[in-house]
Amino acid sequence: MGETADESRRVSQPDLVTVVAERSGTQIAVRTALATLICALIDWTEREDGGNYPLKPGECGGCDRHPITVSDTAFNHSWAVDVDINRCDNPFTMGNRHDLPTRVARVWNQYGFAWGGDYRGPKRDWMHFEFMGTPADAIELAKRAMRDLASGANH
């Protein structure tokens, strides 16, 4: 049996897969349950007929299993439910310096991700998108994203 397009773009690990952006080849480790949804979003983000915002390999990430530096507590990246996009261009900072288009952030919001640029505290995490739903939500949102964000779809 041959691989589907989604299967050929993921490298299995226990409960994690690596999604690969079609345009830039950027690799991001994420929770398996979110892989299809994140694939649809990163591909739309990069496509010229989508967000037209290329990801930069080495500046994007997902799962990072180490605990927060000041404690033994795991943080969101250790649960593999979030994605950071172009860290150098979209820093965690007190300022407003970032180049991530708001339109891109709003599309990620529509599919269950909170954006660190919307944080109301003294610092904003411009690179950060965190999934706020359940595994069942991820399945439904992935189906919708694959339909709505396909190349040529109006969004």
Question: Mind sketching the topology for me?
Answer:
Elements: H1 5-8, E1 11-13, E2 16-20, E3 27-31, H2 35-46, E4 82-84, E5 92-93, H3 102-110, E6 113-115, E7 124-125, E8 128-131, H4 135-148
Helix pairs in contact: 2-4
Structure description:
With 155 residues, the protein is of the alpha+beta class. The chain has one domain: Muramoyl-pentapeptide Carboxypeptidase, domain 2 (2-Layer Sandwich), CATH 3.30.1380. Helices cover 25% and strands 17% of the residues. It has four helices and eight strands, in the order αβββαββαβββα. It has helices at 5-8, 35-46, 102-110, 135-148; strands at residues 11-13, 16-20, 27-31, 82-84, 92-93, 113-115, 124-125, 128-131. The strands form three sheets. The protein has a three-stranded antiparallel beta sheet with strand order 1-2-3, with helices on one face. Strands 4-8-6 form a three-stranded antiparallel beta sheet. The chain has a two-stranded antiparallel ribbon with strand order 5-7. A hairpin with a 2-residue loop joins strand 1 and strand 2 (16-20). Helix 2 (35-46) runs parallel beside helix 4 (135-148). Residues 1-12 and 65-79 have low confidence and may be disordered.
Short description, anyone?
The protein has 155 residues and is α+β, with helices and mostly antiparallel strands. The protein has a single domain (5-148), classed as Muramoyl-pentapeptide Carboxypeptidase, domain 2.
Level of helix content?
Answer: 25-40%
Strand tally: 8
Mean pLDDT: 83
Just name the CATH architecture.
Answer: 2-Layer Sandwich
What's the Cα radius of gyration?
Answer: 15 Å
% residues in beta strands: 15-25%
Q: What oligomeric assembly is this protein in?
A: single chain
